[in-house]
Design brief:
Number of helices: 7
Strand content: 5-15%
Helix content: 55-70%
Number of strands: 2
Low-confidence stretches: 1-14
Largest sheet: 2 strands, antiparallel
Distance between the termini: 24 Å
Shape: elongated
Length: 197
C-alpha cells in the first residue's frame, strides 16, 4: 500500500489497497457470525443445566439453568468486547487524528508536517490497531463457548484451560506485528521523496 505524492496545488492522494482496519473488521465479523451460528445450531442439544464455571483441568464446578441468555452469553460477551475494544479504540484513534496533540507517537511533529496523503498510511495503521488487539480475546471467548457446550452436551469435563502465557504470547505477537506495520508505515511516510531537499 503506497501513497503517491501530490504535486503542489493538487489534492493529496490516498493510498489504495485493502486497509488493515477492513481486514481486522472482516475477521471480527467472521468470528462473531461463526460463534453465533455455531451456538444457535448446537443450542437444541443443551441439557437443562449449563456449566458456567470450570476448574483449571476443565471440570465444571458452577451451573446455571439453560436459557437463551445463558446459551448465548459468550457470543454476547464477544460482541461487547468487539464494541468496547475495537470500535471504542477506533473512535479514540479517529479523535486523535482530529486532535493530534493527544496522541503519543514518536516523530509526531515530523509526521504532522507532511502533506495529508503522506500521513494517510500511518493513520490507517493507527486506526486498525485496536481492532487487531481485540482479536485474541475473541479467540479466547470462542474457546470458552466450546468448553461450555462440550461439558454440557457430553457431560464430562470441558477443554483444559490454556496457560495464561499462551494467551499473552498470542496477544503480544499481535501487538508486535501491528507495531512493526506501524513503524514501517511511519518510516515510509517520513522517507524523503525523490527531488525533496
Amino acid at each position: 500500500m503506497r501513497a503517491t505524492l501530490a504535486r503542489p496545488g493538487e489534492p493529496a492522494a490516498v493510498p489504495r489497497g485493502v486497509s488493515p482496519l477492513a481486514i481486522a473488521l472482516a475477521l471480527h465479523a467472521l468470528t462473531l457470525v461463526g460463534l453465533f451460528v455455531w451456538s444457535l445450531v448446537r443450542r437444541h442439544r443443551l441439557p437443562e443445566r449449563l456449566p458456567i464455571h470450570f476448574l483449571s483441568d476443565g471440570t465444571p464446578n458452577g451451573w446455571a439453568e439453560t436459557s437463551w441468555l445463558t446459551a448465548l452469553a459468550m457470543p454476547l460477551t464477544a460482541v461487547g468486547i468487539f464494541v468496547l475494544i475495537a470500535l471504542g479504540g477506533l473512535a479514540i484513534m479517529r479523535s486523535a487524528r482530529r486532535h493530534p496533540r493527544y496522541l503519543n507517537l514518536p516523530r509526531k511533529a515530523e509526521l504532522l508536517a507532511l502533506p495529508p496523503g503522506r500521513q494517510e498510511p500511518v493513520w490507517r495503521q493507527l486506526e486498525a490497531l485496536p481492532a487487531w488487539l481485540a482479536l485474541p480475546p475473541q479467540g479466547l471467548i470462542c474457546w470458552a463457548q466450546a468448553t461450555i457446550y462440550k461439558a454440557a452436551i457430553e457431560g464430562g469435563p470441558g477443554y483444559e484451560v490454556p496457560p495464561v502465557w499462551l494467551f499473552l504470547a498470542v496477544e503480544g505477537g499481535v501487538l508486535v506485528v501491528a507495531g512493526l506495520c506501524l513503524m514501517r508505515a511511519m518510516r515510509r511516510a517520513l522517507a524523503r521523496a525523490p527531488g525533496e531537499g
